[in-house]
Amino acid sequence: MFSKTSIRTPKELEKYFTFILQNSESLLYKFNLLFNQLSSNLFQITFTIIIKV
Question: Per-residue pLDDT tens for 8-20?
Fold first, then answer.
């Protein structure tokens, strides 16, 4: 998306950071959802194993 050579002026740098900040929020949200999903699945698996044993 962004090449290192494209950032030259403070204005461009500012745009770049705003872009990162705006997207990181949604990325964190997605990651959080994924993590919650994984942990609940892991819990269910562990629970099932404990019951079977």
Answer: 688 888 888 888 8
